[in-house]
Amino acid sequence: MSASPADQLRRLERRVRRQLDLRMGGRRVWQSLPAIVQILVAVAAAYSVAHWGLGHPLPILAVTLTINALGFSRDARPQRVAESVLGILLGVALSDGLSLLVGKGLWQLLVVLLVVFVVGRAVSMNPAFAVAAAVPSALVVLLPIPAGGPFGRTVDALVGGIVALVVTALIPRDPTRAARRDGRVLFSVLSESMGSIVDCLAEADDAAGDLALTRLRRTQPLVDDWAASLDTALSISRISPFLRSRLPELHRDSRVHRAADLASRHLRTLARRVEFLVRDGVERPALAGLVNEVKTALTLLGRELDDVQLTGQARSLLSDLARRLDPGVVIPDAGLTDSAIVLMLRPLVVDLLIGTGLEPDAARALLPSL
């Protein structure tokens, strides 16, 4: 008996979903390979120093601290790694000392955890700091005293922490790649959203305006992700001799990020206004053309992050547009509501011009007086 069309469709959906899951899983593994290599190198170094260098037969904390400090977090800044190292070292040192005083057992474990949690919360505002301190402290209390003495595990943890910080600088994960990827994703969404705003104005299609607004409301996490990856890239590049040459590019990317952040805020307001405006059913091709010019310039600005040969094209388009952003000039017969859309484009264009590297006063001076 042949399957019904509905069953065939469900099987097709399941097959497509499995393929997508496999692709996404493969992509995550590929993107995590630099972190995996970095962690493996750090673990090998920490184990070697503690085991063969210091003679510790089982350097558990040297290995576990290294893994926990580096991890797969998007935030691979040396500051974040150092904070994790300090948290774990604090927990290990406290538990080493307290276990000498109160011994080992269930109630001793609870006493040690209580002290570590209290001190951890007092020392740092980050809740993860106290948790990072508590996990290894429990291991110290539960495991027997090592052959190297009661504070041998504190030494192991210190070795792991130093190795993690050194590896962060000497074998970085090339965070610029993640930052560029986050930037491309954000600009792609902004460009698609502006395309929907253009369609909304050109065709008096309020559904296109609603789609643009829906997309733009989801941009803030993308802005935040790019900010975090840029911060990580800048922090690592400042201390890494291999990545320091990329600092000028990263500072440029940070400037573009600020412009994209402001643009996303402007565009959310613009999309709301446009979606309401076209409810009268009137097509506005002139306004659509203006927004399309901004869209083209914004897309070029995003492409400049990867292609230096495009540098300057976005500024040229935006400068020409800025000089024409007078409602009475670009749309002579515009009413009050249409003129308001043109006026809303002025700060957006200025922010994008600043993102191209133009000084704020010079960018504002390009706008015609009203």
Structure description:
It contains 15 helices and no strands. Helix 7 (175-203) packs parallel to helix 10 (247-277). Helix content is 79%, strand content 0%. The longest helix has 49 residues, at 5-53. With 370 residues, the chain is mainly alpha-helical.
Kindly list the characteristics that best describe this protein.
single chain, 15 helices, 79% helix
Distance between the termini: 75 Å
Radius of gyration: 28 Å
The tally of helices reads 15
How are helices and strands ordered from N to C?
Answer: HHHHHHHHHHHHHHH
Secondary structure class reads mainly alpha
Please state roughly what percent of the residues sit in beta strands, choosing from under 5%, 5-15%, 15-25%, 25-35%, 35-45% or over 45%: under 5%
- Which ranges are low-confidence, i.e. pLDDT below 50, for 5 or more consecutive residues? none
Number of strands: 0
- Mean pLDDT, to the nearest integer, reads 84
* Largest sheet entry: none
Which bin fits the share of residues in helices?
over 70%
Tertiary shape: elongated
